[in-house]
């Protein structure tokens, strides 16, 4: 690293639905107060973090908007929620398209299931020599899911926030990376203002996806929002090749959004590689969990999923510490909603306590003004305390005056 150069900051905004949007609003407000937002080189976002992060990039960075107007719009979005506008979209032409897709996919899937069952029965009663031929037979649905509830989310995001903006229409600095997950290969799929794609499939030939589409893919929580099923054209090894991809919530692969910020990534393999000196990772989903006793399979499986999820985030946090210890990055901040208050350096007297805020659900329903204020204030307070304690050399003294 060049010690004389101004450190490059990578900012990651985690997933967590509306809870993440409100918490990250406070984190961004703190970074704005400290004069650090203008020094961010890469903005990496996931799910709920993608909603607020992409909107911040499009409005404040790309159009020169002021932070106060941005905050007012985000507060209005949280108060309205995304779930109700999505429901209203059902009573439109798009809703009819979603219903038609659901019916067609369901009928085809049922037909294929019945054929497979008949073939299985046939293998049991026919001679072994013929049965071997049937075992090699594969049947899959030829249909793409051309519309779904996630399409409704995309339409609402476009109406309320992004106004038909495409990735290649946004300002290139800082680099915006919207993280999704590609289910066919189990790999990260990143939409970026620099480039988009996956190391498995290659780089998108045309980086013209709409911002609303990228954010909806990043936020498509699998239990409630179907994955996007589409065929895209990729460049890899000097060749163009169309491939069918299945895109879902970026949190499935990396809920913290740190994947594109690691210092050991190579541009020969990965996309969106930008050297980073300081990492700020704002997490709205990490904390000490205590689920109720699990007596039924659904609750047990949810607890299993959450446990695996938490362990993956533990590994990422450990990697942050190792990157700093070995000098790969200069420093990092990790303001997270579930922060134990007793470990917070120099907390303010009016600190929003962990127990008051960390258990808000991770959905996109309307949020009360009380919860918007509580979550955003905690995000601001945590970020200010940690920044003043761990990266004071990056902060102008005049920027930390009381708001």
TrEMBL record:
Coiled coil start-end: none
UniProt domain PNPLA: residue ranges: 11-258
Keyword Transmembrane found: yes
Domain of life: Bacteria
GO molecular function, one term: hydrolase activity
Key word DNA damage present: no
Keywords: Hydrolase, Lipid degradation, Lipid metabolism, Membrane, Plasmid, Transmembrane, Transmembrane helix
GO biological process: lipid catabolic process
Pfam families referenced in this protein's UniProt entry, alphabetically: Patatin
Stretches that traverse the bilayer: 90-115
The protein's name: Patatin-like phospholipase family protein
Species of origin: Bradyrhizobium barranii subsp. barranii
């Amino acid at each position: 690293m060049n010690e004389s150069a101004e450190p490059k900051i990578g900012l990651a905004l985690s997933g967590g639905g509306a809870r993440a949007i409100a918490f990250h609003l406070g984190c961004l407000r703190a970074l704005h107060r400290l004069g650090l937002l203008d020094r961010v080189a890469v903005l990496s976002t996931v799910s709920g973090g993608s909603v607020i992060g992409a909107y911040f990039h499009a409005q404040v960075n790309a159009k020169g908007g002021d932070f106060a107007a941005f905050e007012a719009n985000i507060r209005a979005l949280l108060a309205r929620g995304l779930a109700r506008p999505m429901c209203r979209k059902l009573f439109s032409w798009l809703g009819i398209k979603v219903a038609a897709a659901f019916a067609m996919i369901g009928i085809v899937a049922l037909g294929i299931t019945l054929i497979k069952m008949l073939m299985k029965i046939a293998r049991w009663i026919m001679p072994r020599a013929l049965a071997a031929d049937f075992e090699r037979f594969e049947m899959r649905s030829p249909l793409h899911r051309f519309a779904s509830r996630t399409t409704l989310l995309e339409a609402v995001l476009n109406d309320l926030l992004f106004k038909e903006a495409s990735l290649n229409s946004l300002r290139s600095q800082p680099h915006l990376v919207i993280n999704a997950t590609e289910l066919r290969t189990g790999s990260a799929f990143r939409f970026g203002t620099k480039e988009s794609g996956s190391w498995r499939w290659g780089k998108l030939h045309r980086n013209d996806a709409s911002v609303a589409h990228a954010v909806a893919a990043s936020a498509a929580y699998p239990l409630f929002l179907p994955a996007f099923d589409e065929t895209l054209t990729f460049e890899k090894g000097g060749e163009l090749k169309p491939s069918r991809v299945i895109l879902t919530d970026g949190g499935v692969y990396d809920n913290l959004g740190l994947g594109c910020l690691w210092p050991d990534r190579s541009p020969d393999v990965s996309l969106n590689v930008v050297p980073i000196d300081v990492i700020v990772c704002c997490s709205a989903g990490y904390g000490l969990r205590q689920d109720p006793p699990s007596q039924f399979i659904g609750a047990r499986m949810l607890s299993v999923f959450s446990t695996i999820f938490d362990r993956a985030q533990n590994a990422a946090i450990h990697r942050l510490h190792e990157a700093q210890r070995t000098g790969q990055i200069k420093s990092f901040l990790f303001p997270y909603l579930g922060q134990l208050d007793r470990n917070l350096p120099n907390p303010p007297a009016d600190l929003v306590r962990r127990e008051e805020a960390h258990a808000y659900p991770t959905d996109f329903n309307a949020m009360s003004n009380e919860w918007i204020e509580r979550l955003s204030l905690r995000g601001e307070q945590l970020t200010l305390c940690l920044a003043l304690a761990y990266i004071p050399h990056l902060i102008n003294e005049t920027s930390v005056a009381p708001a």
